[in-house]
Amino acid sequence: QVQLVESGGGLVQAGGSLRLSCAASISWWNIMIMGWYRQAPGNQQELVAIVKSDGRTDYSDSVKGRFTVSRDNAKNTVHLQMDSLKSEDTAVYLCYLLQNDGLGYWGQGTQVTVSS
Known about the structure:
- This protein is mainly beta.
- About 0% of the residues lie in helices and about 55% in strands.
- The protein has strands at about 5, 10-15, 20-25, 30-40, 45-50, 55-60, 65-70, 75-80, 90-100, 105, 110-115.
């Protein structure tokens, strides 16, 4: 069973920054994709940003230019640097991992609240 440990959520004013981290209990050798989704009350879950095993990244249009996803191979960790935060970024952010064998795992979620 893969464990994902998230950290870094919290309350921030609009225009501010937060950095989320997600540490996996397996090495990057076994990971196809790792990244972040989010879910706000009343909204569907949406992809925020992912990083693939080959280093390529993908972002939601709503966060392009403001958020940066990166990985730390040595620590089996993915980070999400969130700048220029807006009230509409308020959501529970969930770390997601897809193994090479096709099994997927979710973190417990971390709350991000942006006050206007």
